[in-house]
Design brief:
The complex is a heterodimer.
Chain A lengths: L1 H28 L4 H6 L5 H11 L5 H13 L5 E2 L4 E2 H36 L4 H15 L2 H15 L15 H35 L2 H8 L4 H38 L5 H11 L2 H29 L8
Antiparallel strand pairs in A: 1-2
Chain B lengths: L1 E3 L4 H11 L12 E6 L14 H10 L4 E3 L5 E3 L6 E2 L5 E5 L14 H14 L9 E8 L2 E6 L6 H6 L10 H4 L14 E7 L3 E6 L12 E2 L2 E2 L7 E6 L3 H10 L4 E2 L4 H6 L6 E16 L9 H10 L2 H8 L3 E3 L26 H11 L5 E7 L3 H16 L3 E7 L1 H8 L7 E6 L1 H5 L1 H7 L12 H12 L3 H17 L4 E13 L2 E2 L13 E2 L1
Parallel strand pairs in B: 2-13, 2-14, 17-18, 17-19
Antiparallel strand pairs in B: 1-16, 3-4, 5-6, 6-8, 7-8, 9-10, 10-13, 11-12, 14-20, 15-19, 15-20, 16-20, 21-22
The chains are: A mainly alpha, B alpha+beta.
């Protein structure tokens, strides 16, 4: 297992290298730079050029690339030109917000999605099944930013239960954190909830037709024990696969949701950096996101072994 | 002619409170007011940034030697006034005495000298210090600035809020851009900055008011901080900002979309304040390549455009049809000059001018960006109007940095939509400078505009400078250098319990209070 894990971690290096190279190339191809943003519309060509020299934007792309990789090997992601601080610090400061949001959305999606899928599968083609699946389809079809705005209108403006936006750190006030995260996580989770519900239902229907389930029922075990303990355990593998993919999608969705709910997360940092062409932040942010994707995929593969005795990695 | 949709009784009530209600209402001290703005400030080092998001915050913290009054004219703030020598070369500023920085130190001439010198190095509009030869401090309360040559725009430059020439302690002035401690002399002091979240300010209890004035006036005057603290939140989503105002989480919005203001006109808890004018909507033209290098073609564009349609669509109805390249009511407004060529919407005349220009159906690129909705809508409407007279228009919509970058090139664009906000507010120097000098926006220098610019920046008599602005405006229309579409307004909004609020270039949190 250890050897397998190390192998996977090593294989991530070329993946991250390709990601950073592609992002460097894309950034170089996009017109406009941060000097334009900083100088404002009435800046002269001379002022713009002076700013470009100050910011090091006059250097050839290859030179900038070599310098960036050199610094990266020393663990330095560079300095944000607009924030005037280390990119690593800027990302680390915002990472808890994005990870907290993604984690809470994942919990919502798994708990409610899997539960809904199981309920639907236990009574296939019933009104319950049709209703749950219709709701799942609605969840899958709605864009999360729109849902976010609807949640704000409903839960904040009309009912006054939750704040319209903003962030309360967990360390300062856990209940405040939950209140500030409930709507964004809910809006983010709904799509994945629908996906997981449909996936769980399909897997559960397969499993419930298996002989060992029939045997368990024949032995007189209570229905909930058969569904949750015997059938549920075998539904876990495909659910984990989908949940692993969901983490990636949720991280991507967090970018938009952070804008809607004014959350100071990594997504908002990257969007701001793209709008202002703050290259070091874009590079660092993309590298971090790619790293999280790679690690989540690895975690999913390792989880297979934990939940399915048939899966073993290396010896 | 003024055309705007009414915002209903909320607006009327708000304006009434702001203008005539103030003296009668008991002032109350205390409370934490929360403002929301779309963007976060790129820097709180006031001198170094021209961003509106920074200005909204920084002008609560920092002050300048001269500020701008309610209509945008320069007025003394940290200086008692100024004496200008007859040759226009020596400016003597007596300073207000006893003014304290937020660190407790009393401001003196050394701080002012160090701040002005720093501005010349790192200032967002550092060019305003180019004419300066020496800065002397004959005593602790006097600063003498000597210029190399007469530059009547000097006071306008150092009083502009664009990238404010903020006075900071001399100990900070040696530091590079963005690395200073946030210390000013303003009515609020800096407390905390959480990136992507908020900035917190607290009332500066040792603030020394400018008793030369009776009340607030623009960015200057006698400022009184009633709120204990001000929190400025950065909320990119307009819908969330509006919702926050409705729920009472937010007390002030720097801008409220016009449709939202109309929707909330019956909400007793919200007050909307129109501010007109806020900016110019313009269509810049590139003279470096055909067909916009051709005067007859540019005149055809000028004749074809229907400004009412452009402005109504691009501003959601909050606009004013004015031809002037300065705001009416300001010192340099040039009256009716050029008015006969504004908003012609004459397609026959436009087609005739097109034929005269020898136009051969070349592609005409209208460049605009999607980052500012006004820019995009202006480009779209203008493009349709030009198509109607037979121009082969290609509309290019990109993001702001891309559009800005493109317009600095001599090729790849013919018309570019741009809203000029702070420049016309600053007066004529920024607006005329936009079309003159070594890098005019139209890429080709026009002798008439250059002559007007020289006259404006060297004439010591105000009458001559006014004539220079009139000459500039005449040339803008006669040569169809670029197109002024009209004036754009904005709506600022508060909760109803924010008393004595008056809309301005920033949401000012002095001289207003909670009921």
């Amino acid at each position: 297992m250890l050897r397998y894990t190390l192998g996977r971690l090593l294989s991530a290096i070329p993946v991250l290298l390709v990601v950073s190279l592609v992002s460097f190339a894309i950034i170089a191809l996009v017109p406009g730079d941060m000097a334009s943003e900083m100088a404002g519309p009435s800046a002269t060509a001379e002022e713009l050029q002076r700013l470009r020299v100050q910011l090091g934007l006059d250097k050839p792309i290859l030179q900038r690339m070599v310098e960036w990789y050199g610094a990266l090997l020393r663990g330095d992601l560079g300095e944000s030109v607009l924030l005037r601080r280390s990119v690593t610090d800027a990302i680390l400061e915002r990472l808890p917000v994005t990870l907290g949001l993604t984690f809470l959305a994942l919990v919502f999606a798994i708990v409610l999605g899997v539960l809904a899928g199981m309920v639907a599968a236990v009574r296939p083609n019933s009104w319950t099944d049709q209703g749950v699946m219709a709701l799942a389809l609605v969840g899958l079809s709605l864009p999360d930013f729109w849902l976010g705005l609807v949640f704000i209108w409903g839960f904040a403006v009309q009912l006054g239960w939750l704040p319209t936006g903003g962030y309360v750190p967990f360390g300062e006030d856990p209940l405040g954190w939950l209140r500030s995260m409930a709507m964004p996580a809910g809006a983010l989770a709904l799509t994945q909830m629908g996906l997981l519900a449909r996936m769980t239902r399909a897997s559960m229907l397969d499993v419930l037709r298996q002989d060992y389930v029939r045997t368990a029922r024949a032995k007189g075990l209570p229905g909930w024990v058969v569904v949750f303990r015997h059938a549920g355990a075998n539904v876990l593998v495909p659910v984990i696969t989908v949940a692993g993919v969901s983490v990636g999608i949720l991280l991507g969705g967090a970018v938009v949701i952070e804008q809607v709910f004014s959350l100071p997360g990594v997504g908002r940092l990257i969007i701001g950096a793209i709008q202002r062409r703050d290259y070091p932040v874009i590079q660092g942010g993309l590298l971090l996101t790619a790293t999280i994707f790679v690690l989540v995929n690895l975690a999913v593969d390792l989880l297979y072994a934990a939940v399915d005795p048939r899966v073993r990695y290396g010896r | 002619m003024i055309t705007r949709r009414t915002l209903g009784k909320g607006t009327a009530a708000g304006l009434a409170a702001a203008t005539i209600g103030a003296p009668a209402i008991a002032q109350r001290r205390g409370g934490e007011v929360v403002i929301a703005q779309q963007a976060q400030p790129p820097s709180l080092d006031a001198a170094t940034t021209t961003a509106q998001a920074s200005r909204n915050i920084n002008l609560h913290i920092y002050e300048t030697l001269f500020a701008r009054d309610e209509v945008g004219n320069p007025m003394p703030d940290l200086a008692e006034g100024v004496t200008i020598s007859s040759d226009g070369l020596t400016y003597t500023f007596p300073l207000r005495r006893g003014v304290k920085f937020h660190n407790g130190k009393v401001m003196n001439s050394a701080d002012v000298k160090a701040s002005l010198e720093r501005y010349g190095k790192v200032g967002g509009s550092a060019f305003i210090m180019r004419p300066v030869d020496t800065i002397e401090t004959p005593d602790a309360n006097t600063v003498v600035v000597k210029l190399k040559e007469p530059y009547p725009g000097f006071i306008a430059g150092i009083s502009s809020p664009r990238a404010p020439c903020a006075i900071i302690p001399a100990e900070e002035a040696g530091k590079e851009a963005g690395k200073i401690e946030i210390i000013g002399t303003g009515p609020f002091r800096f407390v905390e900055y959480r990136p992507d979240s908020h900035v917190k300010l607290a009332r500066f209890d040792d603030y020394v008011q400018n008793t030369n004035f009776r009340e607030r006036d623009g960015f200057g005057g006698k400022k009184t901080a009633h709120f204990d603290g001000v929190t400025i939140r950065f909320m990119p989503e307009a819908g969330a900002r509006t919702a926050g105002l409705q729920t009472g989480e937010l007390h002030v919005l720097e801008a409220l979309a016009v449709p939202a203001a109309q929707r909330l006109k019956d909400d007793r808890n919200v007050r909307a304040y129109e501010m007109m004018p806020w900016a110019f909507q313009t269509l810049m033209m590139n003279h470096a390549q055909g067909p916009t290098s051709n005067l007859a073609f540019r005149r055809a564009v000028q004749a074809a455009l229907d400004m009412e349609e452009i402005m109504a669509i691009s501003t959601d109805g909050l606009y004013r049809l004015t031809h002037g390249w300065q705001h009416p009511g300001t010192t340099y407004f040039a009256g009716d000059v050029g008015k006969e060529l504004y908003n012609l919407k004459d397609q026959n005349r436009a087609r005739a001018l097109l034929r005269e220009s020898g136009y051969r159906n070349e592609e005409v690129i209208v460049l605009c960006d999607s980052s500012f909705s006004n820019h995009k809508a202006t480009g779209e409407v203008a493009a349709e109007q030009l198509k109607a007279i037979g121009v082969n228009v290609k509309l290019v919509v990109v993001d702001w940095p891309t559009a800005f970058n493109q317009r600095t090139r001599r090729e790849g664009w013919h018309l570019w939509t741009l809203m000029l906000g702070i420049e016309p507010y600053e007066g004529p120097y920024g607006v005329v400078g936009f079309f003159s000098g070594h890098a005019p926006v139209q890429h080709e220098r026009d002798p008439g505009i250059e002559a007007a610019q020289t006259k404006l920046t060297t004439s010591l008599a105000e009458a001559d400078r006014k004539q220079a602005v009139a000459d500039f405006q005449r040339r803008m229309y006669d040569q169809a250098i670029s197109i002024k579409c009209g004036d754009v307004g904005i709506v600022q909004a508060t909760r109803a319990n924010v008393v004595n609020y008056k809309p301005y270039r920033i949401p000012r949190m002095w001289d207003c209070w909670f009921s």
